[in-house]
Amino acid sequence: MSPPFEGCSRRWMPTPSKVRTQLFWMVVVSLSLHIAAIGVFHFYRFRTDDNHFGYGWEMGRIGQSIALGQGFSNPYGGSTGPTAWEPPIYPYLIGGVFKLFGIYSDASAWVLLSFNSLLTALTCIPIFLIARKTMGEKVAIWSGWTWALLPYAMYWSVHWVWDTTLAPLLLSLVFLVTLELEECKSWKGWAVFGVLWGLASLTNPSMLSFLPFSGLWAWHRRRQRSLPSIAGIALASTLFFVCLTPWLARNYIAFGRFVFVRNDFGYELRLGNGPYADGRLMPYLQPNLNQVELETYSRLGELAYEERCKRMALNWIHENPERFAVISLKRVFYYWNNTPKATNSRAPVDFGNSLFLASSVLAIWGVGRAVRKKVPGAWLFLWLMLIYPAIYYFFFPGARYRHPIEPELLILIVFVILEVGKPSAPGQSPHSG
User: Which of 28, 129, 196, 321 has minimal Cβ neighbours within 10 Å of its Cβ?
Assistant: First the structure.
């Protein structure tokens, strides 16, 4: 069987055996550290005082319904009927694990957290290959090993039963394939591009904001090389919609009308915009924490409840445009700084947020330097940083909403640190080139 990128440039890759050895040990070391942390710190034991809701939240409840044979339904428990509150891939994974190893059991937690850990470990591979193609082998090695050993990446794997670890892997694979398409003469690259975007949309539809920009970047770069793209774009688009069609058909059958991958737009908009909005999530409006909201959701049904939330949020925005603008600017800062802790915190300095902000500053510095130095793929990094976060500036930010682009940010951070530490050639200023 021929490789998926047959006909694409390979000049950026070192000896295959060297690559495999380097990546093998990155993945093994990363996965070993994750598994050890799960066992030593008992992360597989979730709290039970909230009736296991923190064990997967809405996705966990849907997974429970799937395991019980009730289908993709009941995101808050009970019998509220079919749902499209969440995208399908990860809840179905939870449902399958629950079916085999027990609903909300420690064994299921072990399996799910171990799977998350494997996803994070495997993300070392596209990180290494993206960095190797764009910024050289030294940046690739440092980026891959930093991700493998990074406690922050481990946090999401061993604490959260959610798609938080699958999204970075898929988005970094999409990023890598987009870079490959610049020189790829085979149709197989476009096929992989379409399938990956289909899987990404069924995992976390927020990633779709980057789809048109990644496609346009590949088309533009190929056009500069006089390479054809129309047939490839058509193939990728066809496979993308083939991936989506079964889920869209399911939603139409379940709700009697067209519903895209998920239907919680209005709900999410309301959680960030209302009379007491300050730029952060207003969790007290969530049905799992507010009995009145849960009763309203159950009484109206999911689609009508979502419409109600959207209407309330849009009315407030229309009536308070200045306030909406102010809190949206705050959300831009919170996205890159992380949201502040409660005001009753006694810590004089929030070191976690300080490190978060420092990493953002380094990544922004890195992408600026990459663009100035005309690093291959620099504009693709820039478009990702500009486009992907934008939706959260109008809803609400949080650390996990930056995590899907964390691999690319890490590469930029490593790049700028190594660049700044690089000695200048004789007669050359530190910033020349």
Answer: 321
- Residue among 251, 30, 47 at smallest CA distance from 161: 47
- The answer on pLDDT for 11 being more than 80 is no
Q: How confident is the model at residue 14 (pLDDT cuts 50, 70, 90)?
A: low
d(CA 45, CA 32): 19
* Residues ≥6 apart with Cβ < 8 Å to 357: 336, 337, 338
3-state SS class at 77: strand
Backbone angles phi, psi at 78, to 5 degrees: 70, -145
**Tokens 């030294």 -> residue:** 138
Supply the DSSP string of 94-151, one letter for each residue: HHHHHHHH-TT-HHHHHHHHHHHHHHHHHTHHHHHHHHHHHH-HHHHHHHHHHHHH-H
* Residue 412 tokens, joined: 């930029």
428 has pLDDT over 50: no
130, 179 contact by CB (below 8 A): yes
The average pLDDT across 73-94 equals 97
From 133, 158, 155, select the one nearest 144 (Cα to Cα).
133
Rounded mean pLDDT, 339-365: 80
Q: What is the chain's mean pLDDT, rounded?
A: 93
Residue 431 confidence (pLDDT) above 50 = no
Q: Are 160 and 73 in contact (CB under 8 A)?
A: no
Phi (first) and psi of residue 77, to 5 degrees: 85, -170
Answer yes or no: are the C-beta atoms of 313 and 270 closer than 8 Å.
Answer: yes
Q: How far is CA 158 from CA 36, 38, 92, 240, in A?
A: 10, 6, 19, 31
50: amino acid identity, one letter: D
Are the beta carbons of 172 and 127 closer than 8 angstroms? yes
Percent above pLDDT 90 for the chain: 88
Q: Write the burial class of residue 139 (CB in 10 Å: 0-12 exposed, 13-18 middle, 19+ buried).
A: buried
The rounded distance, in Å, linking the Cα atoms of 124 and 137 is: 14
DSSP category for residue 210: G
Torsions phi, psi for 73 (to 5 deg):
-155, 175
Q: What is the reported pTM?
A: 0.93
